[in-house]
Amino acid sequence: MRSSNPVFSRRGFSRDNGHAGFNAAPQAGAPAVGANPYATNPYAQQDTLYGAPQAPARSGAMTIDDVVTRTGMTLGTVVLTAALSWALLPVDEANLGKSYGIAIGAALVAFVLAMVQSFKRKPAPALILAYAAFEGVFLGVISSTVSTYISPGTVMQAVMGTMCVFAGVLIAYKMRWIRVTRRFYGFVMAAAMGFVLLMMVNLLFSVFGGGDGLGFRSGGLGILFGVIGIILGACFLALDFKQVEDGINYGAPREESWLAAFGLTLTLVWIYLEMLRLLSIINGND
Predict the structure, then answer these.
(1) Long-range CB contacts (< 8 A, 24+ apart) of 106-115?
(2) For 189-217, how does the pLDDT look when each residue is reduced to its tens digit (9 = 90+)?
């Protein structure tokens, strides 16, 4: 099973199709990891003399502490650059156009960097942190705009909402209320692709037809699609947690913790943006 994020990257603890990653869940009907940890483990090394699989070197294996540390660094970069852009890129009437232009440019750079990392065979920490920095610039300007023109409390509500979704999914995953299976993965990916396609169509209609396009970003439909977007983000979190769990169980190299941090950051940014949009619609209608 290979997980993904809203950018539909190829990251994951997997080795399918010869691509490095880190979701190495056993195939259906394959022996369980506990029964034969090397039968389906892509990180088991081959013995050079007899060709027999050997256990991966545990000294360099990824741990949960590695994932937490790298994720903290990546999210910390997002938060820091968001705070700086909020402070240094004013969104008053005189500077709104300039700040918006910088934010859109930063978002495009962040998207390109994310796609480059998604197609790389190995994680590049500098690339991931650069993505986080540019994404933070975009989030800072957007958040400042919402706080200035809609409601000062909306941004904090979105942050708290994102944290609650993260905590809720983590608890549900640890309690095994959520089980990540191939069917779950397929459903989430199909729903996400449909959601993104609808948003792209809506964007095209809004650009060429003016207004809010098909109405997916405002009113009742906007609220509905905001809730759907948050639910999809929560599902991606479950996939991310599965990736981390499998990577640790299979002894993925320590450097792969950067991919876990990258994926979690992508998902949390997705949830925050959807939460911010949903609350903006609700607060804007008050």
Answers:
(1) 106/134, 106/135, 106/137, 106/138, 106/141, 107/134, 107/135, 107/138, 109/134, 110/134, 110/135, 110/138, 111/7, 114/7, 114/9, 114/262, 114/266, 115/7, 115/9
(2) 999 898 888 888 877 766 666 556 566 66
